[in-house]
């Protein structure tokens, strides 16, 4: 008896139905993601379009299409308004966000590495305290922070915004978890046997291995400080010290008395988004590299 060949009509309909279901599911997911992307990008699109319009076109023309573009003229008016105050606000935001995020990342890396590698009395209690502080909302700390800074005379200064910004409990937590996962203990022991100091091991070996975590902490801190509004509102009175968020709010509050500030507020909001976009574009490759490295670890 010759063996019969498997029927061509056997499992194929099942596979076909299975592939069909997967295909429909994939299309559905792509459609949902496309709609979500459009939903999130729509305000940015409107902001770009509105920034190119004149004052009359801003309120009279269709909001989602160009009408007599004059972006350069709007930018020139924006940066010359009130004795170039918007440029000062942008520099202040870059100072607060840049310095605050760099220092916060360094401190988080050092603290996270120490909590992950070294054993000492009270380590878990300290980590639990740091982890608990992640759950405390910033609004609950705003008034105590103001009262503390008022006692030492640091309100209405750059330090009143910078000093609270260099603390990142979430960054410490992330750096500790990532260090435990990405830094082998054997590698540290090998460095110590070769005579390398603890600082050299941390600087030359550990920082490279945990660079994706550092980029994450930096970006979270940079965006958080850049968008911070409540702390500068409480701490600052001199408008030359305002970050761009508080500066634009001060203009918006004057629109009823000075309607020309409406256009400047819109254009300023567009300009204020640009540094965030540039920062993400410049640092996203480090995220990709970190994900690729983690995907091949055994």
What number of structural domains do the residues give?
1
Task: Give the CATH superfamily.
Answer: MetI-like
Identify the CATH class.
Mainly Alpha
Specify the overall morphology.
globular
CATH architecture: Orthogonal Bundle
**Mind summarizing the main beta sheet?**
none
Give the helix/strand class. mainly alpha
Strand elements, count: 0
Compute the number of helices: 14
* Multimeric organization: single chain
Strand content: under 5%
Would you give an account of this structure?
It is a single chain. This protein has 298 residues and is mainly alpha-helical. The chain has one domain: Orthogonal Bundle (MetI-like fold), CATH 1.10.3720.10. It has helices at residues 12-51, 55-60, 71-80, 85-117, 123-134, 138-151, 158-165, 169-182, 185-193, 198-209, 211-226, 230-235, 244-252, 261-295. The radius of gyration is 27 Å and the shape is globular. The relative contact order is 0.12.
